[in-house]
Amino acid sequence: MxxxxxxxxxxxxxxxxxxxxxxxxxxxxxxxxxxxxSKLLEEVKLSFLEEGLKIKAMDPSNVALIDVIFPRExxxxxxLEEPIEVxxxxxxxLKVMKRxxxxxxxxxxxxxxxxxxxxxxxxxxxxxxxxxEVASQEIPxxxxxxxxxxxxxxDPLKTILKDIGLAGSNATFEASEEEGxxxxxxxxxxxxxxxxxxxxxSVLEMNVKxxxxxxxxxxxxxxxxxxxxxxxxxxxxxxxxxxxxxxxxVVGGGRIFYYLxxxxx
Length: 265
Prior knowledge:
Layout: H1 6-17, E1 20-24, H2 27-38, E2 43-49, E3 52-58, E4 64-71, E5 77-80, E6 84-89, H3 90-97, E7 105-110, E8 114-120, E9 124-130, E10 148-153, H4 154-167, E11 170-176, E12 181-186, E13 192-197, E14 203-208, E15 211-217, H5 218-221, E16 233-238, E17 244-249, E18 255-260
């Protein structure tokens, strides 16, 4: 029996579905991404374009927005016959991605009716899903400017998010140019407060104009816990009574943005 040839199989599979076939070297990135999306939506639309993969979706309450851009160069394989939108049930995708292990390669192949997911390492696992119709959302382009910009390593933020999730339903972010620090706190029954100073080893960059202060829903904030697994650092931007923007850079130049509107005061 001849040796298995991955490139030959890739070509054979391409002729079966003939719309899009992509391969990404680390399945755990997409596992974390879909975990976050599933907390916002039951279904999501993946747009495969000449420039790469785009996902842009807002939760039904219009509080949180996720914006994903993976350039085609981020994929080890990116074969596209023509632009296509792939609709995915999040419950079905999560069942598949629970089988993903670190080091697995993630493959997606689709046409107008079918989606095939493969998780490949020393073994190959194949799962078939339906390409479902997902209603289009009217999402306006965001044109935001921010007074506070903090880039920090993700590990301390993981701890902060877990702690504040136990402290109350809202979390306030406050940054001061004069004091050179970011304060995250809850003033509810179980009070919580932490300070991150500009000279902290966990801070890579901190730029603040004046003072910025805004409060956000903790349940939506902790949605980004899964995303802290895909990047060593996170960029946090906000202004007073404005949305907070978080940005994660992933392998190959992909970027994941998560926006959250402030609570009403």
